[in-house]
Design brief:
By secondary structure, this protein is mostly helical. It has helices at residues 9-44, 48-58, 62-65, 67-79, 81-90, 92-111, 118-148, 172-196, 199-229, 262-266, 272-289, 295-315, 339-366, 373-377; strands spanning 152-154, 160-162, 232-236, 253-257, 318-320, 330-331.
Length: 384
């Protein structure tokens, strides 16, 4: 027996679909509070010392948190090559804007305190805001466009042709999803600041994050209603072989309103995902109002898990629908790497992912506790 035949091709495809979701959720939960903290920076911190406190809450961990973004991109490249090719080429300008904003963060962290001038530091503070807000918005806009379908097609030789524009991505439903993402990230960043700060910064973070948690609930509900009434979903009109070759053109697909919600009727257990999206945000809100420290972070993390899972479960088995040639839509069953490739990658993941989780947990344990403003004033114990 060949070793990789121990796990069937369809099961491996399903496992890697789940792992892709795990990596995206891992990025949103870890780097999400970095983005949210940066977005809140100009509003929760008014003095230079307060802003240094906020920056130092994420200073020791933000670089490690971005490992999840790299892992996610690598997993897409290796496990879902057509998805990587379409998304990274079709969303090129959006990706460039996101990377530019993300690059502002390390530069802002490193250069902000190199000079004492108020104007100098203020400009870098707003650069950090851009580095948090823009990726949060664009990631949500990307999800909104994926749910609606992306304008790409394959020819008979499986060459990719993308026929969209950057401004075409900024449609009303995608922008609504972008607002969901921003509200979710601000809620999460506020929950992190509540855990890591004291005094005035803590109080302001609670106030802003309380509003963000309510906004997450309202916007998530609006997004679901719009998905039901206004967005066409995709469904198969031909037989699909879960163990068949990775050829997106070997099927036929149609669109119809409300199709994205059919999975919840077919598999009622999937309702857990949107329920957790709402429940987590509500738990975070209650934690903020009750002046609890850890509860809001747990609630916001639960909400992120539920919201991202809702998008993935609604679309399953589609991972990137095409709005101009429905047959070109990418699915779990026809857009993966080979059986052997998925198996080898799974073995590597089983070995290395637990190591990453253990190391990450150890880092957070060592760095646990609130940021000490007095230590920052004395110039010891903090990086920025």
């Amino acid at each position: 027996m060949i070793l990789h035949d121990l796990i069937s091709y369809d099961v491996l495809r399903l496992i890697w679909w789940v792992l892709l979701g795990v990596l995206l959720i891992g990025f949103a939960v870890t780097d999400g509070f970095d983005l949210g903290t940066a977005t809140l920076l100009p509003f929760v911190a008014r003095t230079d010392l307060e802003r240094r406190v906020v920056i130092n809450t994420v200073g020791p961990v933000w670089e490690g948190n971005q490992v999840w973004l790299i892992l996610g991109g690598g997993a897409i490249f290796a496990a879902w090559p057509p998805l990587y090719a379409v998304s990274f080429s079709g969303f090129y300008l959006a990706m460039f804007a996101t990377l530019f904003a993300l690059i502002l963060r390390p530069v802002g962290f490193k250069y902000r305190s190199k000079r004492d001038g108020r104007a100098w530091r203020s400009r870098w503070d707003w650069a950090l805001f851009v580095g948090g807000f823009v990726p949060s918005l664009i990631f949500g806009v990307a999800v909104g466009n994926v749910l609606q379908g992306v304008p790409f097609r394959f020819d008979d030789d499986l060459r990719i042709f993308y026929e969209g524009t950057f401004f075409g991505l900024l449609n009303p439903y995608a922008l609504l999803c972008g607002l969901v993402s921003v509200a979710m990230v601000v809620m999460h960043g506020g929950s992190w600041l509540v855990l890591k700060t004291e005094g005035t910064v803590n109080a302001r973070a609670r106030s802003y994050a309380s509003v963000a948690s309510l906004a997450t609930i309202v916007l998530f509900a609006l997004g679901g209603v719009a998905l039901w009434l206004l967005v066409n979903g995709y469904h198969f009109t031909s037989e699909v072989a879960p163990t068949g070759p990775s050829n997106p053109l070997a099927k036929t697909v149609d669109v119809a309103p409300g199709v994205w919600l059919e999975n919840y009727g077919r598999y009622p257990w999937m309702m857990i995902a949107p329920a957790l999206g709402f429940l987590g945000a509500l738990i975070a809100f209650v934690g903020f109002r009750a002046k609890r420290d850890l509860l809001p972070l747990l609630g916001s993390s639960l909400s992120i898990f539920g919201i991202i899972s809702t998008a993935g479960l609604s679309m399953f088995p589609f991972i990137l629908p095409s709005s101009i040639d429905t047959a070109s839509s990418l699915t779990v069953w026809d857009a993966s790497s080979s059986h052997l490739t998925l198996f080898i990658m799974l073995v590597c993941t089983v070995i290395f992912l637990p190591l990453i989780l253990v190391y990450t947990a150890w880092v957070y344990k060592v760095l646990w506790g609130k940021v000490d403003a007095d230590a920052i004033k004395e110039g010891k114990g903090h990086a920025y």
